[in-house]
Each structure stands twice: as structure tokens, then as C-alpha cells.
Specification:
globular; alpha+beta; six-stranded mixed sheet; five-stranded antiparallel sheet
Length: 400
């Protein structure tokens, strides 16, 4: 991007699975395969968010099943119980797999194509183009290197092999609002991906977590780091779901804009002594949550990056720059901090895209500063824990 942030091309890297002929499709020969795949993606949100593009959420091009309708998981459990058990190609019931699941794998408007796991070419009786025995995984964006794409394809092939030998029959999870809270943060996505790799290894597939480290760094680039008195702060880019706005009239007809003005980052703190210290962002206490390691905490910070003419909250101001302070509550002093500028700190607007990765890195680094402590006595309030998004500090709501 112009500010130096790495991004995908925006083009899809969708993975299509099937057979040489429609009746050779593994999803028709083994009806338990498709529910296994759907359930596994439901139980492991990292598969939905690690390889996707910037535009995610219920109105994106590949929404998760449980991002669309609240009752979708409940209804899907009923559908799984009605699926045939044996090879449907032997008794000519192959259309049942398609009919039972098709109306569940849709987006919030009923679009069968715009779904994370798309079945519109599986075995629809209505048209020949819909009877190809194919399942399309749409939550994959084009990565910057061919080997990263091959790693994704190998992962899906490994999952299919694992489910073919042993169906995945765990219960569907009801993540609720944690999908857009906990699972927006790279710490939890990385841990979940490691669980997926370990599961494949336990089923005889020699996967290595290092194969997906480039995906992690590409999806969640580091913004900056700061250390003071054995306390270490790390800021990383996190994920933010964008939403389609209401219809508006334009010179070319009716338009629906996407509100991309809100962004999110992850704050990870290590070497932290709680409750002596707190971390604030623009003077607001960050609701840090333990990661399970001694002295390590993590939280998300959601902020308004810029002000478009059409947005979900058009009257709210921007929140940049973001100033993080480490507060010693015993002495009511800031012992140091860092600052992240959403745009160039000098107000410069770049006229071109970065020439190469070094120029891009320089533009990114120009927006992060380590700074001296905030002077004077500093008093902090208890962090406000949202009931819906307990791991996220939403700066848009600080003055409400």
C-alpha cells in the first residue's frame, strides 16, 4: 500500500476440490467428508482468518457460516443428522448431500456462491453446471509467493486425507461475538494454527508449524516494539471486519460503500507485573488478558484510522496517533511508552507506491516512535471490560 503496509493483490486464491468426474467426487463417495470439513473450519477460526484478505466479516466475499445468521449453527446440527451414511454414488442418492447442506452454506442474503465453503457446483439437480461434484473454499487470498500458496493447498489436502480415514465428529462451536474479538488477534490465530498442525501430525501427516510462519508475518505484520524495566511491548496489525453500508445514490446509480475506516492492532505485553503496572492507549486503560504464560498479556485496540465521507459512525473523530504508556500505579508515573501514527507523522501524503520492500519498510518505520514518559502524575481508571468484546479496547467509545 502507499503507506508501506503489505497486502495481497485482492484476487482470490480459491481452492476447488472434486474428482475427475462428478461421481468421482470424494464428497459424494464419502458423505461424512463435507460435514467434517465444515465442522473443522467452524472449530478452528484460524483457517478462516489467517489466509483471507483484508475484507472479512458477514458481508465479505467469503463469510463464515456463523458470521451470517445466529441460528445457522443450530440448524446445521439438524442437517448433519439427516445426511446419508454410505457411498451415495452406489444407490443414486448423490443429490442428497447437495440438497441437505446447500441452503445452509450461504451468506446472509442467501447467496450460495458468496460463502466460505461454497457448494453451488456440488450436485444441484437444477442445472448441469451445478452438478460437477466440486466444493470451493473461498477464504483464501492470493499470497505473495507461490510456495505460500502450495503450503495452503497442502494443508487442505492433508485435512481431506485426515477426514477420509477418520471422520471429524466433534460438536459445532458457538463462538458468538468472540469471533470478532478474540479471533481477530494474531496471538490466538497463531495458537489455533499450531493446534491444527499438531492434529495433522497426530494423524500421521508430517506437517511443520514453520511452513505457516510466513503467512502469520504477512497477515499480521509487526508495527513496533518497546522495552522498559524488563517490560516489553509489541504492537502488531490485527484483523478488523468491515461492513457494507446502506444504499446511497451516486452519479452512476445506487452504491453501497464498505466502511474501511476502522482498524485494529494487537498489544502484547511480557515481563508484566499485575496489578502494579497498567498500559494506557491515549490515556485509556487497556483491558489486558493473560495468555497463559507468566507475565504475558494481550489485548486488541480498535480505532478510527481516517474519516471517509460515508461511514458507519460519520460524526466520530479519528483516533491517531495512538500513544501507549506503561503506568507504575505505585508511584502514579509513566515509566515510558511508544507512539504509532496511522499516517505519516509529518502529514505527508505519498504520491506513489513503494518502489520495493525496503522503501515500504522505511515508510512503516517512520510511523512508529519510542518516546519519553508522559510527564507528571498519571492516574488511571480500572479498564472498562465490554460484555460483548472483553479483549478489545474500542477507542470510538471512550467518550460515549
Amino acid at each position: 500500500m502507499e503507506d508501506g503496509r503489505h497486502s495481497g493483490t485482492g484476487g482470490g486464491n480459491h481452492i476447488v476440490l472434486g474428482g475427475d468426474t462428478p461421481l468421482d467426487s470424494p464428497f459424494l463417495r464419502r458423505p461424512s467428508l463435507l460435514p467434517s470439513l465444515i465442522t473443522y473450519f467452524n472449530n478452528h477460526p484460524s483457517l478462516s482468518y489467517l489466509f483471507s484478505g483484508l475484507f472479512i466479516g458477514p458481508t465479505s466475499q467469503a463469510p463464515r457460516l456463523d458470521e451470517t445468521r445466529h441460528e445457522s449453527v443450530y440448524e446445521l446440527e439438524t442437517a448433519f443428522a439427516t445426511l446419508p451414511k454410505g457411498d451415495t454414488t452406489l444407490d443414486h442418492t448423490q443429490w442428497l448431500v447437495d440438497r441437505v447442506l446447500r441452503n445452509h452454506m450461504v451468506d446472509m442474503t442467501g447467496n450460495t456462491h458468496r460463502s466460505e465453503i461454497c457448494l453451488d457446483k456440488l450436485f444441484s439437480p437444477g442445472s448441469t453446471t451445478g452438478r460437477l461434484g466440486l466444493v470451493e473454499l473461498r477464504g483464501f487470498e492470493m499470497p505473495p509467493h507461490s510456495e505460500m500458496s502450495l503450503a495452503q493447498q497442502l494443508l487442505i489436502r492433508g485435512l481431506i486425507s485426515r477426514f477420509w480415514d477418520q471422520p471429524y465428529e466433534e460438536k459445532l462451536m458457538r463462538w458468538g461475538t468472540s469471533l470478532h474479538d478474540k479471533w481477530m488477534l494474531p496471538h490466538f490465530v497463531q495458537g489455533d494454527m499450531q493446534d491444527v498442525v499438531e492434529d495433522l501430525r497426530q494423524h500421521g501427516l508430517d506437517f511443520d508449524p514453520a511452513w505457516f510462519a510466513p503467512h502469520q508475518e504477512f497477515r499480521f505484520p509487526i508495527i513496533g516494539e518497546y522495552s522498559q524495566k524488563n517490560i516489553h511491548l509489541e504492537l502488531r496489525q490485527a484483523i478488523e471486519p468491515w461492513h457494507v453500508l446502506g444504499e446511497e445514490q451516486s452519479s452512476q446509480g445506487t452504491s453501497r460503500y464498505v466502511d474501511s475506516s476502522v482498524e485494529r492492532l494487537q498489544l502484547k505485553v511480557s515481563g508484566f507485573e499485575d496489578p502494579r503496572y497498567r498500559v494506557t492507549c491515549n490515556g485509556v486503560t487497556v483491558p489486558l488478558h493473560p495468555t497463559g504464560r507468566q507475565g504475558e498479556f494481550v489485548a486488541g485496540v480498535r480505532y478510527r484510522a481516517w474519516s471517509p465521507f460515508s461511514a458507519l459512525h460519520p460524526t466520530l473523530p479519528t483516533d491517531g496517533p495512538l500513544t501507549f504508556d506503561i503506568i507504575d500505579q505505585w508511584n502514579q508515573l509513566s515509566i515510558g511508552g511508544c507512539q504509532y501514527h496511522v499516517v505519516h507523522p509529518g502529514g505527508r501524503a505519498h504520491d506513489d507506491f513503494p518502489l520495493n520492500a525496503y522503501v515500504a519498510e522505511s515508510r512503516r518505520r517512520a510511523r512508529f516512535f519510542t518516546m519519553n514518559k508522559t510527564p507528571g502524575r498519571v492516574s488511571t481508571a480500572e479498564p472498562v471490560i465490554s460484555k460483548d468484546y472483553p479483549m478489545t479496547l474500542d477507542l470510538q467509545r471512550r467518550n460515549l
